[in-house]
Amino acid sequence: MSDLQFRRHRRLRSTPGIRKMVRENEVKKEDLIFPIFVVEGEKVKNEVPSMPGIYQVSLDILAQETNKLERHGVPAVMVFGVPNEKDEYGSQAYAEEGIVQRAIGVIKENNPTLTVIADTCLCQYTDHGHCGVIRDGEILNDESLQLLTETAVSQAKAGADIIAPSNMMDGFTAAIRRGLDNAGFVHTPIMSYSVKYASAFYGPFRDAAHSTPSFGDRKTYQMDPANREEALREARSDVEEGADFLIVKPALSYLDIIREVKDATGYPVVAYNVSGEFAMLKAAAQNGWIDEKAVVMEKLVSMKRAGADLIVTYFALDVAKWIDEELY
Ligand code: PBG
What we know:
Elements: H1 16-21, E1 32-39, E2 45-48, E3 51-58, H2 59-72, E4 76-82, H3 99-110, E5 115-120, E6 133-135, E7 138-140, H4 142-158, E8 162-165, H5 172-182, E9 191-196, H6 203-209, H7 229-241, E10 245-249, H8 255-265, E11 269-273, H9 275-286, H10 292-306, E12 310-313, H11 316-325
Parallel strand pairs: 1-3, 1-4, 1-12, 4-5, 5-8, 9-10, 10-11, 11-12
Antiparallel strand pairs: 2-3, 6-7
Bound molecules: ligand PBG.
């Protein structure tokens, strides 16, 4: 053996203390963003069937939820409105007293230190469930930008700290940046869904947000999962248009894209650990087939390792608790 030449990598793995010294990535509470679904009505707390432990809540219950997040140190929420009234142009998305606008107000009043990120899209608000304006069965790009801009401005007026447009129309970042600036919100950052794939992993979210398209699919605006160079083009044009953060969505099947977007832009990258990724893991955990905490932490740290600075995840509250208890 003595003349064998090799490196002893196991030295740095030999004790928990040494392993900690050389650990390259870590999930911190500061990285976490929790998505919240708000609905009309009173005392509503509906569990989403395909997302155990995740609820749609009405405004009178919202503070209970956000207090929990604040108490455990989750620093940010992403708010999704589920309105009662839907119409052709998604007018509740930009109504002054819309569900999301009121929810933003409630959170800012109760938990002023929570960073409130507003999802800016039309699909929950349109009766056809698409993310833009429709004519003759076609999703129109430029005609949708005006409504998306109005939505973003109304959310900023309601007190949103960050605007997160998720609609994937071309030019939405440029249009929204200009709209925010003209309305005096020059300091409100845009967290753009730069790279959003037409993914089957959004299924449970569409149950939660009632946003399944009534015809067709989203493939003319969301990206083909097969494409990588196109993702970089999307990310670059979003940077040119004024995005401050870049979201890659979904996260787990797209870790390569997270890394490439990070390297190509140097901008803060946000991994969106989507509903289907949550549901798969919950189902396996409920069956006792995997160790939920261990698998969740492994998943999230792999997103950090891939280059994500922040992670939107339905596990955010659980993770913050586990970090408190040093349970992982
Ligand atoms: C809507 C939107 C979607 C998600 C966030 N915003 C879904 C979609 O395109 O249907 C998905 C989130 C998730 O699955 O967790 N524009």
